[in-house]
Specification:
215 residues; Rossmann fold; alpha/beta; Arc Repressor Mutant, subunit A
Length: 215
Amino acid sequence: MPENAAVHVIDDDEAVRHSLSFLFESAGLAVRTYDSAEAFLGVAAQLRAGCVLTDVRMPGMDGLALQRRLRDIGLRLPVIVMTGHGDVPIAVQALKAGAADFIEKPFDDEVLLAAVRAALDADRRIREREAEAEELAARLASLTPRERQVLERLVAGQPNKAIAYDLGASPRTIEVHRARVMEKMGARSLSELVRMALRAGVAAEADPPRDTPRD
C-alpha cells in the first residue's frame, strides 16, 4: 500500500470518529478523520491513494452529495458509505452512483475491516494499472518514427521481409529496428512486445503508405 494511502473517515460524531480511528490503527491501517464533508473536501484535491469511509447522514453536505462532489472533481478513491438500518434506499443510491460498498450501523468490526481492505486493494490495483500505462506510454514515446512503423507492422503480424518491402528497407535493417524496439519497450519476446503494444493502444498498420521515408 502506498505510504500516503489512508482510510479517510468522515463522520460528524466524535465518538464514532474516535472508535473507527482506534479500530483501523489497531489493524495496522493509516487513518485520517474529518468532522464534515466540507473539511474533507478541503484536502481532497491533494489525495492520490486510499479510500473514503463516510456517513450518509451529516449536517451540511451529506454522504451522497459528497460522493457526487468527489466525482465532479475527479477524485476516484473508492467510497464506502455508512448507513442506519432505515437508510437502505439511500445506500442503493450510493452504489448506483459508484460507491464501492455500504455498511449498516451498528456494524461488525471484521465486516467493516474486510470492506475497507477490499477498497484499499481495489485502489492499489487501479494505481498499478495507471503506473503501468504511464510507463508503456513513456517507452512508446522513446521510439523513433521508423521504429514506431516497424512496431505497428509487427502488431499486424507482418514478418520482417514484408515490413522491409513496405518500408523500402532491407530485411537486415528491419531486424536492427526490431531489436531496438524490443530493447526500448523492455520486451523479452515478440509475443510480449505485441501484448504490450496492444495494451498501450498501438494500432496495427493494415495498409501502410508506400511513400514512407527511407532510413
